Amino acid sequence: MHRVVKPLFQLASLCCGQQKSKTFLFQRGSTCLVELSQHMKNKISRERLLKFAPFLLKRTNTVLANTALHKRRRSIPQPLRVASDVAFCPKLNKDPKRGDGRDNCGEDAYYILDTNENELVWSGGVADGVGGFALRGIDPSLIAWELMEYCKDTAATSTRQSPKQILKQAYEKVLSENIVKGGACTATLVNITEHDDNLYLTCCNLGDSKVLIIRNKTILYRTHDQLHFFNCPYQLGVRDAGSKSEQEPDKPESANETESPIRLEKDDIIVIATDGLLDNIFAEDIVSLSSACNTRDPKKFVNQVANVLVQAAYEVSTTKSVDTPFQQYAAQHGLKLPGGKTDDITVVVAKIY
């Protein structure tokens, strides 16, 4: 070993100068031990070995520096991100697109906004148009789509507003633009914001669409329905000329909202869905179906979960031989409505990764 140590001191001294301690020189020179010993096995003279000392040390130090940088990078927590996707199934026309180029969600609508402006990281929502307006020749989905698109625009330009504030501004635009001549819809919005390297969720809900947060195969949070009476949820509306109803549309101020931001964790799953999902699939089954998807790619995961949930809800909606949330809800009001409920189904899924 002495034959190796002494040349190492000399080798390190050549590159570091003589003012370094022997401990430092030995540590620096020892980094070349593997390459030096290989050369010595090949019977290269010490003089020739020392001639190549600067090259060997430079090469070894580069490797060590890159290794240290890699270790530091691995030790620094990576920022949390959001992957999201949507799936939908209209109850009638199954064409994927409407005549105006929008996705054909039946009477439902949605929006997804990926952004890193200021604190807002992600925003999304769903709306469910009231089908009864079709009997008066009014497209029930128009108000839902206009509202969702205004929500997206508002969130993109006013990134520090709460979901409830976004909903209020978007509804005011629906009324002022006068594109919608009549109709009503529910609305559910979610914002995910970043603060001090953590992600936080806030949401608001008006009507009977829902938000679920799933963590470790359990429901961490869920919104609750707002109903005037059986099967009549709160709804934002535009009065049409032929309306004879004395009931005024609900206001965005009536929407429920999170009392405080919910801190999100890696692998949390957020489900935002119209009642076509939750009327047919129990919440615990949504958890099981979501947890059964095991792909590691977060973008593939959210696509898979959204489609699995929509397919499951559609299959249940077409049968009368299974117990469903809507059946139980109807029974509480003295009604016998067995099996699933035919409806439009729209599901937005997000995952924290």
**What is the CA-based Rg, rounded?**
31 Å
What are the secondary-structure elements, in order, as H or E?
HHHHHEEEHHEEEEEEEEEEHHHHE
In total, the number of domains comes to 2
Strand fraction: 15-25%
Question: What's the SSE blueprint?
Answer:
Elements: H1 2-16, H2 22-30, H3 33-41, H4 46-51, H5 53-75, E1 82-89, E2 108-114, E3 120-129, H6 140-157, H7 163-177, E4 183-195, E5 198-206, E6 210-215, E7 218-222, E8 227-229, E9 232-233, E10 236-238, E11 256-257, E12 262-263, E13 269-273, H8 275-278, H9 283-292, H10 298-317, H11 325-332, E14 345-352
Antiparallel strand pairs: 1-14, 2-3, 3-4, 4-5, 4-10, 5-11, 5-12, 6-7, 6-13, 8-9, 13-14
What this model shows, in words?
This protein is an alpha+beta fold and 353 residues long. The chain folds into two domains: 74 residues; 271 residues, Phosphatase 2c, domain 1, CATH 3.60.40.10. It has eleven helices and 14 strands. The strands form three sheets. Strands 2, 3, 4, 5, 10, 11 and 12 form a seven-stranded antiparallel beta sheet that branches. A hairpin with a 5-residue loop joins strand 2 and strand 3. The longest helix has 23 residues. The radius of gyration is 31 Å and the shape is globular. The two termini are 50 Å apart. The N terminus is likely disordered.
How would you sum up this structure in a few lines?
With 353 residues, the protein is an alpha+beta fold.
Features:
7-stranded antiparallel β-sheet; Phosphatase 2c, domain 1; about 350 residues
